[in-house]
Design goal:
Blueprint lengths: L8 H10 L13 H15 L1 H23 L13 H29 L1
Length: 113
């Protein structure tokens, strides 16, 4: 593993480059978009700060979605909808309410600072 310092990025790239052109791992390396994705994955494996920042952003998104799911949960968490369209409407209405709650909390916290 790269994170354990048993191998380096250059060894991995060298092994990918040594395969024949028909080999599946080498095919994506020809595409520049995939090449940059591979570079990002290698950076992600090596850089602890990058991993922490990505995890922090993912946790923030997860908390937002958890808040969106919690907003329409009245009546013991049971929806009072008859159709799928009404359920979609309830779900869409929870987003602006969650954004308003986050904005209100941000304003309160910024006044304290």
């Amino acid at each position: 593993m790269i994170t354990l310092k048993n191998t380096t990025q250059s060894i991995i790239i060298g092994k990918l480059s040594s395969y024949a052109r028909k080999n599946a791992p080498k095919k994506p390396c020809g595409n520049s978009k995939t090449f940059f994705r591979i570079i990002y994955i290698l950076r992600y494996a090596d850089d602890m700060l990058l991993r922490q920042n990505v995890q922090r952003a993912l946790y923030r998104c997860g908390a937002y979605h958890q808040l969106c799911r919690a907003i329409p949960h009245e009546n013991s968490g049971k929806f009072r909808v008859d159709t799928e369209g009404e359920q979609q409407n309830w779900s869409e209405c929870s987003r602006p309410i969650a954004n308003a709650a986050i904005f209100y909390n941000s304003c309160l916290l910024s006044k304290l600072l």
